[in-house]
């Protein structure tokens, strides 16, 4: 009795940690046993199994229409037969998938997987140069595009066809004259399954997907997603306590790993149902949840803030939602969300698409991204090391090794690469893969995955996200590569040099894009021309909201652009003598940033 009391007082989370870890270990052991068998079981295998077990159960509800497990199974079979007979795909081919959220995204994905193809999920916001780069990365020679996105290919279709990339639209006859169509071939196709040997995975470490993530190279990087990573992600809902009776709400884009791997994969693993939204709508969110009896939803922090900003109603707590799973939820928004919409358990998950480390806040402590303890550290080797924000590099000791931070201090999160925590890297470039690694961190020969995130771990083992380092920041739930923005802005004729970075905006998650610009000699700043350029060539989340004109660009001692002071000085016109401009959609220009506009932004009155 005394020992139990001491355990409760000194280690209040011991039993919850232990039970959660045992649950995760049990799933991990199952995966390890699968590796020993001749035929590795994949997420697709699990879907086929569920389609046989619960064929009439709703799998996806989309715009009011129910698609059962059988419906998706049969339609994906038809597509698989079309891919084999008409598209002439073969096992081992890579296919680009450019589609918005809809059931046929899943049917195309599963159909391609059934014929043994790896699939590259393409961000629907990317423009011509980035799109072509994505094909080069993963070696895809076929593109499957949603019927509503075909017109957007006009600027790049010629190049795709010249590169012998065949383009197939998820539509019928009468569309683009140079694009093949799938739906007219679907009706005549068999719904019988193709040979199971085609989808069979020789190893769980075989690539199955390529999911693109922004990096410091200026163009999207193709993170290699193996069957093993997909299976681990599919266990997320289950690990947090979801069951087959839950109804999941997925408003995030399927081309990101959260919606596809955790959301769809997790629904399949449980044999549950999901409500798929084409695009998140704050005004429709709770109406959808009530209508479809949603119990679990996926989020990013920005999504929850949008919900809190909606007008209050008497029915704010009239729903069946009991849990949210996601990342990036700020403490103040977290508290407001639960206060207003009820005691919904918010389960933060930390981990990048390509990373080899995952934290899960199974305790639900507000403001933390995860939980660690003695047992966790035995299995997953990670460290927080001292980082110099001014020099933009890890602090080294006299022997050239990194230095660990003390408990509670902020440091750069590194995760050791090992057989238990492998790093599969990026497709198409060993250089990019190597760049994400840090070697000889604590000893000769070791290798760590550099998350690029500054974190802090308190004495109770709770881990808090502090900031991002390097050339990537997040805005509107998307990663923004500063080098890509820099290259795009550099094409404007009056701009000589650009330094892009993210600045904090009161009341918003992430960081808004800002660019320090040096003008070419004898040329003037043209806000209208710059507006036209960025709105034409860049997705909305990557467009710089603020411009700062400078005479001289500050550099570090290693000739890197200095961002630290710029980030901290922000966009307040009263504290800088440099001319400042703000993106204005009404005037279709970058206009002078006045004190009045600055105050309206800080007060949340001006939409960004």
Automatic annotation (TrEMBL):
Membrane topology classification: Multi-pass membrane protein
GO molecular function, a single term: nucleotide binding
Listed GO CC annotations: endoplasmic reticulum membrane; plasma membrane
Gene3D superfamilies: 3.30.300.30, N-terminal domain of ligase-like (3.40.50.12780)
GO BP terms: long-chain fatty acid import into cell
Signal peptide coordinates: 1-17
Organism: Gasterosteus aculeatus aculeatus
Record protein name field: long-chain-fatty-acid--CoA ligase
InterPro entries in alphabetical order: AMP-bd_C, AMP-bd_C_sf, AMP-binding_CS, AMP-dep_synth/lig_dom, ANL_N_sf
Statement: the UniProt record of this protein carries the keyword Nucleotide-binding: yes
Record-annotated AMP-dependent synthetase/ligase domain positions: 48-372
Record's keyword terms, sorted: Cell membrane, Fatty acid metabolism, Ligase, Lipid metabolism, Lipid transport, Membrane, Nucleotide-binding, Signal, Transmembrane, Transmembrane helix, Transport
């Amino acid at each position: 009795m005394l020992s139990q009391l001491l355990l409760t007082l000194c280690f209040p989370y011991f039993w919850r940690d232990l039970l959660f870890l045992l649950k995760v270990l049990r799933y991990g052991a199952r995966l390890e046993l699968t590796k020993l068998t001749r035929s590795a079981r994949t997420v697709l295998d699990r879907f086929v199994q569920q389609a046989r077990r619960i064929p009439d159960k709703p799998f996806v509800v989309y715009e009011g229409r129910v698609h059962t497990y059988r419906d998706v199974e049969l339609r994906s079979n038809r597509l698989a037969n079309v891919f084999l007979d008409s598209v002439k795909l073969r096992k081992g081919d890579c296919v680009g998938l450019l589609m918005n959220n809809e059931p046929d995204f899943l049917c195309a994905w599963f159909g391609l997987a059934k014929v043994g193809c790896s699939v590259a999920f393409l961000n629907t916001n990317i423009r011509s140069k980035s799109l072509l780069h994505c094909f080069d990365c993963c070696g895809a020679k076929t593109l499957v595009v949603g019927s509503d996105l075909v017109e957007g290919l006009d600027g790049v279709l010629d190049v795709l066809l010249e590169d012998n990339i065949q383009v197939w639209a998820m539509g019928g006859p009468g569309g683009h004259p140079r694009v093949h169509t799938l739906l007219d071939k679907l009706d005549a196709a068999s719904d019988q399954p193709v040979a199971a040997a085609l989808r069979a995975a020789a190893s769980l470490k075989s690539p199955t997907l390529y999911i693109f993530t922004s990096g410091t190279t200026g163009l999207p990087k193709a993170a290699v997603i193996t069957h093993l990573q997909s299976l681990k992600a599919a266990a997320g809902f289950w690990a947090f306590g979801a069951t087959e009776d839950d109804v999941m709400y997925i408003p995030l884009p399927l081309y990101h790993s959260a919606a596809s791997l955790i959301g769809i994969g997790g629904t399949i693993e449980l044999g549950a149902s999901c409500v798929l939204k084409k695009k998140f709508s704050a005004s429709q969110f709770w109406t959808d949840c009530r209508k479809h009896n949603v119990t679990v939803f996926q989020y990013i922090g920005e999504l929850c803030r949008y919900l809190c900003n909606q007008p209050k109603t008497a029915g704010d707590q009239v729903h069946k939602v009991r849990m949210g799973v996601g990342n990036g939820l700020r403490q103040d928004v977290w508290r407001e969300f639960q206060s207003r919409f009820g005691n919904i358990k918010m389960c933060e998950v930390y981990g990048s698409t390509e990373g080899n480390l995952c934290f899960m806040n199974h305790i639900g402590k507000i403001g933390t991204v995860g939980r660690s303890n003695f047992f966790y550290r035995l299995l997953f080797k990670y460290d927080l090391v001292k980082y110099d924000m001014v020099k933009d590099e890890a602090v080294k000791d006299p022997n050239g090794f990194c230095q660990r931070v003390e408990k509670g201090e902020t440091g750069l999160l590194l995760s050791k690469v090992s057989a238990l925590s492998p790093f599969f890297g990026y497709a198409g470039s060993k250089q990019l893969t190597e760049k994400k690694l840090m070697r000889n961190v604590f000893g000769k020969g070791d290798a760590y995955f550099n998350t690029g995130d500054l974190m802090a771990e308190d004495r109770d083992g709770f881990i808090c996200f502090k900031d991002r380092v390097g050339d990537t920041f997040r805005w509107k739930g998307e990663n923004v590569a500063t080098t890509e923005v820099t290259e795009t802005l550099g094409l404007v004729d009056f701009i000589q040099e650009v330094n892009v970075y993210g600045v904090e905006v009161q009341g918003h998650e992430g960081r808004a894009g800002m660019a320090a610009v040096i003008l070419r000699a004898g040329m003037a700043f043209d806000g209208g021309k710059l507006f036209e350029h960025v709105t034409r060539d860049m997705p909305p989340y990557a467009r710089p909201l603020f411009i700062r004109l400078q005479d001289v660009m500050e550099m570090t001692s290693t000739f890197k652009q200095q961002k630290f002071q710029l980030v901290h000085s922000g966009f307040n016109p009263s504290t800088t003598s440099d001319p400042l401009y703000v993106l204005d959609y009404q005037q279709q220009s970058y206009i002078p940033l006045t004190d009045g506009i600055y105050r309206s932004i800080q007060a949340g009155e001006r939409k960004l």
